Write a sequence for this structure.
């Protein structure tokens, strides 16, 4: 059974750096083809893909946010960490991590999400 | 960047068929995936690769994709199907792209 859980601060100040951790079970990020993504959703708005870390440590980033995002994996801890710098109130939203389908390009398992508010 | 366009809302009576569209340039050449999101919950994959269903998803959910439009069809709609639905593709220039979402209301 695959599960993912997001953790981190729920309130950050503008200009601060956000660090979120996705802890997962039921799969290993050393398995060929797998990946863990970060996806966010501002309140009342649509889903927005942010980044993805592949099993082979290839990383993909949303082009418009590339300069602010870093994703890393720790296979020994079954974790993927997202770092987003220079946070702004427009970055407020629910942040999800998700398991990339092994043989496709969809996300078949999601964490419950963590609501991050950016406010002074 | 690649853009997916969905109608903001679709309404349907219980027992009827709901069709939610997702428009994109030559989307028929891509694999389309659909997610259901109920209030306060994480999205759930309901259709992947245009028309396949993950285990546990009712056969009432089906998908098609051709030309510039992909469609999620929900047959015999139930009150519990009321949710937001998002389409998603992978594009070589944009990576993972989501549509703007469609709110399905069951009358």
């Amino acid at each position: 059974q695959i599960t993912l859980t997001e953790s981190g601060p729920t309130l950050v100040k503008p200009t601060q750096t956000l660090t979120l951790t996705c802890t997962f079970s039921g799969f290993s990020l050393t398995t060929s083809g797998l990946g863990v993504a970060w996806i966010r959703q501002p309140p009342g708005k649509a889903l927005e893909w942010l980044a993805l870390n592949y099993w082979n440590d290839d990383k993909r980033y949303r082009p418009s946010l590339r300069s602010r995002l870093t994703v890393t994996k720790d296979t020994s801890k079954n974790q993927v960490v997202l770092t987003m710098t220079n946070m702004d109130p427009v970055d407020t939203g629910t942040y999800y991590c998700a398991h990339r389908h092994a043989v496709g390009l969809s996300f078949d398992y999601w964490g419950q999400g963590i609501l991050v508010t950016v406010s002074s | 960047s690649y853009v997916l366009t969905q109608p903001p809302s679709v309404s349907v009576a219980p027992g009827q068929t709901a069709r939610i569209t997702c428009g994109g340039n030559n989307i028929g050449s891509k694999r389309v995936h659909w997610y259901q999101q109920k209030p306060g919950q994480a999205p759930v994959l309901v259709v992947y690769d245009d028309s396949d269903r993950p285990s546990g998803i009712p056969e009432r959910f089906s998908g098609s994709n051709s030309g510039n439009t992909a469609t999620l069809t929900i047959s015999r709609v139930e009150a519990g199907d009321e949710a937001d639905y998002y389409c998603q593709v992978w594009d070589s220039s944009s990576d993972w792209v989501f549509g703007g979402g469609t709110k399905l209301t069951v009358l």
Summary: DSSP finds no helices and eleven strands in chain A. Chain A touches chain B at residues 37, 39, 46-49, 52, 60, 62-63, 96, 101, 104-108, 110-113 (CB under 8 Å). The CA atoms of residues 94 and 114 of chain A lie 5 Å apart.
